[in-house]
């Protein structure tokens, strides 16, 4: 992916930031005290627009099993199952796929070796080139559980000493599967697939992070927009998803691939699909307390220079009459476009904003809805 340089915007939502209203200090306050005066002074020194916490633990919710979807040609209900899961939930699990279990386990071992490097080595081998490279949260604890790597499909690094052959192969296999999902999704939901004619319209990023069991899962932000996200379920483990309906706890089958539909899929489908914001967050219990866990999520996303807009097809308005009959009677059909739910927007600007502002509580697509 191409490198991009941005300047922090003091007010990305537009408009000037109003100063806080003056305090009527001349009015007597029967409850006034030295402590109250100090508190009042601190409160009035705060900025007028407070940012919400950037980190939080997903709330405890009942665990469910994601809908089972098989894209096998032998499954006559594949598109119907996919449409139901996409329109109602925004996530599902693929039980039939071509990704070998051994490959996922080997990629996990290679990923674990990356986290055994010192922080200096991580930064040296994976220099930041947003969104690629090694990233360490400012609130990272001593175990580095808030650190992550983001690599492209080539798994390029600044070192020839690191062996990432399995991780690279897993990235490519998951990418192929992601493209198959997009094709099936476009057929099931009814939007134009831009990848069908030009595969370079999308790109893939593998996000590798580490968790430690026995700790509360943390949603630390670092959202990146995507069309579909894929996570190989190596072992039995729950995870939390931030969906359109709120937090959901799911437990996919072992060796299945958990698929989440992202914000770009929702725009492409003109609002017909639900979405999951960000990547799945692993959930742990005391059964494997203090064990290390590698979490690998592949995101099929867009090049930075892309423009995001609904990919809605042309439809023929026949007013309930047979189009051929209208032509024989001298009439003509009229091509129309269904009403757009979203305005078009720059992917680079959007990706930069949701990644750095870490919008946990507000849907970042709201500003583009018509």
Automatic annotation (TrEMBL):
Segments forming domain Non-haem dioxygenase N-terminal: 67-135
The keyword Lipid biosynthesis is assigned to this record: no
Signal peptide (residue range): none
GO molecular function terms noted in the UniProt entry: dioxygenase activity; metal ion binding
Keywords: Dioxygenase, Iron, Metal-binding, Oxidoreductase
Region (Disordered), start-end ranges: 1-37, 50-74
Top-level division of the source organism's lineage: Eukaryota
Family annotation (InterPro entries): DIOX_N, IPNS-like_sf
Alphabetical list of Pfam families matching this protein: DIOX_N
Protein name, per record: Gibberellin 2-beta-dioxygenase
Species of the source: Actinidia chinensis var. chinensis (Chinese soft-hair kiwi)
Lineage summary: Eukaryota, Viridiplantae, Streptophyta, Embryophyta, Tracheophyta
């Amino acid at each position: 992916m191409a490198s991009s340089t941005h300047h922090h915007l003091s007010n990305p939502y537009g408009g000037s930031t109003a100063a806080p209203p003056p305090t009527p200090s001349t009015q007597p306050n029967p409850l006034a005290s030295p402590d109250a005066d100090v508190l009042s002074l601190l409160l009035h020194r705060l900025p007028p627009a407070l940012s919400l916490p950037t980190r939080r633990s997903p709330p405890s919710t009942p665990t469910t099993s994601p809908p089972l979807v098989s894209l096998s040609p032998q499954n006559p209900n594949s598109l119907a199952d996919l449409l139901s899961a996409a329109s109602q939930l925004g996530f599902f699990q693929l039980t039939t796929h071509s990704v070998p279990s051994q490959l996922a386990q080997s990629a996990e071992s290679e990923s674990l070796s990356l986290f055994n490097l010192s922080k200096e080595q991580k930064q040296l081998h994976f220099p930041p080139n947003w969104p690629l490279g090694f990233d360490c949260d400012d609130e990272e604890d001593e175990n580095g559980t808030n650190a992550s790597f983001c690599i492209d499909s080539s798994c390029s690094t600044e070192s020839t000493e690191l062996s990432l052959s399995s991780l690279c192969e897993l990235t490519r296999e998951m990418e192929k599967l992601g493209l198959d999902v997009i094709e099936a999704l476009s057929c099931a939901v009814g939007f134009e697939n831009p990848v069908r004619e030009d595969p370079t319209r999308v790109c893939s990023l593998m996000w590798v992070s580490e968790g430690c069991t026995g700790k509360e899962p943390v949603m630390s932000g670092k959202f990146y927009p995507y069309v579909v996200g894929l996570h190989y379920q190596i072992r039995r483990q729950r995870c939390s998803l931030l969906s359109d309906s709120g937090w959901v706890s799911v437990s996919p089958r072992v060796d299945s691939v958990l698929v989440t539909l992202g914000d770009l899929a929702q725009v492409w489908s003109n609002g017909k699909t639900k979405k999951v914001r960000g990547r799945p967050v692993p959930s742990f219990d005391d059964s494997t307390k203090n064990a290390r866990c590698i979490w690998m999520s592949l995101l099929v996303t867009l090049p930075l220079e892309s423009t995001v807009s609904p990919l809605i097809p042309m439809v023929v308005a026949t007013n309930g009459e047979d189009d051929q009959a209208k032509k024989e009677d001298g009439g003509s059909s009229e091509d129309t476009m269904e009403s757009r739910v979203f305005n078009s927007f720059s992917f680079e600007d959007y990706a930069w904003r949701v990644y750095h502002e870490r919008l946990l509580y507000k849907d970042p697509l709201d500003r583009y809805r018509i």
